[in-house]
Fold these 2 entries.
Entry 1:
Amino acid sequence: MSENQQYHSQMDNSTLYSGAQSFLSFLEKGVDPRTGTYSIRISMPEIAVNALAGPDIVLSLSFSAMQNVDLGLGVGWSWGTSRLTPVSKRLTLSNGETHLAVLSVDKIEFPDRKLPTFKAERLENAVLITFRSGRTERLERFDLNDPLSPYVPVEIRSPQGHTMRMAWTSFEGNAALSAVLDHDGRELLRVSRDTLAVTISVATSEGTMAAFKLNLSGDLVSSISLPTPENAAWVLGYHDGILQDARRSSFEVINQ
């Protein structure tokens, strides 16, 4: 069996508790045998933007042991959104593509790109990404005073012209997502943090906000609580600060 075959994310789509699937579609996890690092990806429910007129957006959270900074969600955790990082010359797209990106004053180039799956236009303090579908993402430099500051998505536009905006705030000098708004300014997602937890509230079809929490132990996520009456949760286990496993709150190990 090849290393690629050995390395795969195992999906647990079984019902966690009654109602949990309405808020957390599934949790993927896996261990790369080449590095021994543990990774997690959580897909959130699709957000109905502009009364279902779009643009469609499915946000995800992921944990990587290779990311040793706190982007507002706890060390190692990040949103699956597009991001251009001038320091590493790397463009990561929301569809999972990653490219070497050489940014200059008036253009952006991708020396290693094989297929033209998107177009990129250099703007003042921004980059406009256009996908084959006609969907566009406008990435703006987070800190205008820092030429090496990352570019994060601030507006996503559907082929039909419907828009969605993303608001960002600073957390320990890093760009942290704080809210997602539709064309009329209605809040679709809100992120807040205190010393105990990161709370992520998502708009439901009933017009209410469903909140789940990344519970913190220092700057590490110790558990993930779901918005259910049963207080369903995933409990994360660490050894010497390195994530080793994820367990249901019933303490059934799920990384085997």
Note: The two ends are 19 Å apart (CA to CA).
Entry 2:
Amino acid sequence: MDQTPFLEIDMEHLKKSNIDKLENFTKQKFNPEAIRESVDELKYKHDIKEVLLTELTNPSDELTRTITKKVYDGVVTQNIIKQFRKIIKTELQHIIQEKLDSTLQTAMEDNEQTGNPEEPIVNNKNKKIITTPEEIEAYHIIKSIASEITDPEDITIRDKQSYCGILFQDNNRYPICRLHFNNPDKLTIGLFDKNTTTKGQSKEDKHVINSINELYEYKEQIHNTVRTYKQLKKQ
């Protein structure tokens, strides 16, 4: 048996991509030969994804050296690698952010043309609760930030009367951020750190923001929270 599984499925948080793969194991589509042929590819895809996520978070010496040699004429010493590692990490994140922004902008333009805007599915059964455009915009920003290190489908929104919650895998035990936007004159966000708890719960650290775009300033905290939850899911 392989030490590394070629496919991992979380039945409590099924993603569309997982469902598509699982269909190959149904009676109607079951084909042992085709599955065997896809095993290696699935395994490599899984491993490549893990490597890329690691490189995006902390570029290795090997990657840093390779890129640095293409732009730096001098001798690539360890100090140079350390210097360029920060630059490469920042630029990799900028590239992803620009791609996400471009995709989001294109989707918004398409929706405006069709007159059928696509909104995120809000897990909310209380008809008295209205998810505002500001909350949806903030959700998209947080989702784009978190998508740099996790699957975009992991980031969900759940609105409540007192705040709008952004969760990891739609689990209220894994809050990423709370949007306290009921008072438009005092927009407040609540961030979470699993290492700081109150009575076993993550402590909410509130910040007043002047505009929704200021959410980008909290990228590091959002990334740290998502990384913590991903690690907890592996335990």
Note: The two ends are 21 Å apart (CA to CA).
